[in-house]
Write a structure and sequence with these properties.
This protein has 103 residues and is α+β, with helices and mostly antiparallel strands. The protein contains four helices and three strands. It is 52% helix and 13% strand. The chain is globular and about 35 Å long.
Length: 103
């Protein structure tokens, strides 16, 4: 499947703009969204994509698992993502963007 890079770029600009306007999103959550975007790209832009907590924490520069869980839960509550945890050490959890995000 060929991905239209310009279309993806426009979508990411929309997402970043939307999130910047949302005063409920903290800088830590912004960093986590950046990490989610990295995993989304690695997952070849599929609507559902796998993430690992350790990978997201490393990319987002979050050092506390408590902060990570608090931020993930807030992104869920704010309606940016759906998150389906997996306890499989290699598979990782499944994430999808909510339609209101625009990705």
């Amino acid at each position: 499947m060929r991905v239209d890079k310009l279309k993806i770029h426009e979508k990411f600009n929309q997402v970043v703009h939307l999130i910047n306007l949302d005063n409920r999103v903290s800088s830590t959550e912004m960093a986590l969204i950046y990490g989610l975007i990295v995993f989304y790209i690695r997952g070849e832009f599929h609507s559902n994509f796998h993430v690992s907590r350790s990978g997201l924490m490393q990319i987002s520069k979050i050092s506390s698992t408590r902060t990570y869980h608090k931020s993930i839960n807030n992104l869920i509550k704010l309606g940016y993502i759906e998150y389906h945890p997996s306890y499989h050490p290699k598979l990782g959890s499944m994430v999808s963007w909510i339609n209101t995000v625009g990705i």
